[in-house]
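Retro notes, item 3 of 5
We never archived the inputs for the adenosine-5'-diphosphate complex last cycle. Fixing that now. Sequence and ligand:
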Amino acid sequence: LMLVLARKLADRTAQPLEQKEEELEQEGEKLQTVRSEFAANVSHELKTPLTSIKGFTDMMSSGMVKDPEDQKRFITMIGVEVDRLIELINDVLKISELESVVIPQSDDRANVLSVAEECRAALGQMAEAAKISVNLSGDNAEVAVAPGRLRELLTNLMENGIKYNEPGGRVDVQAAQRDGKVAITVSDTGIGIPKESRERVFERFYRVDKGRARKTGGTGLGLSIVKHIVLLYGGSISLKSEPGKGTEITVLFPAVR
Ligand code: ADP
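Structure as it came back at the time:
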């Protein structure tokens, strides 16, 4: 502690160059805090399904569960928890990939509506089961984003539009090119997001309704991955929502000239 205090005092009287070093150090410290908070949250999120799995396996191995139907049910529940773990680990890996590996390239480009069409096909079964129609429209525009990243972004937004919706609802994806930018809007007719949560949905692990979230699945990382991709490619994101009516998220990316 004395050493730290002495150093702080010395820093205070130091030259501008060294002050800059201190600023950098503080930035580094801040990043470190964010990282260790993230690690703590991930560990917590991993613990919940693991605790359930441990509970089920303990019951099974104690011989208390004799009915074959009950045994089957337990194994199914273990499978559900394992799926949750896999989904969580995939999202965490995605975040660390976005933080360290992905570097935008000057020749990155993707056609918005063709990538959206791929996402619609991939989400087809989910949309059908939830009785949601997914519609694509707008300009044949290209953005300066790697196609794989745009696919991740759109999949997350479209999947949310389907998950947080009501049977018979719709999800619309629209592309519009203007002034060297492309606006991609994903809107849904779903449950909406209450005002006090609108800023927070982009935070890692934040969910509006934890109870509902457990049923719908998901990790609470989807929109933070979306935001990461947006920032990485020099874009911006905005959200409009009305509880009971729906949500509209617009992403602006630089267009390909
Ligand atoms: P999740 O894996 O829980 O879907 P996200 O980061 O994608 O995580 O979203 C965070 C939370 O924001 C969700 O749990 C949900 O409560 C809310 N949310 C996201 N998209 C929508 C939407 N289109 N309509 C209503 N609520 C949404």
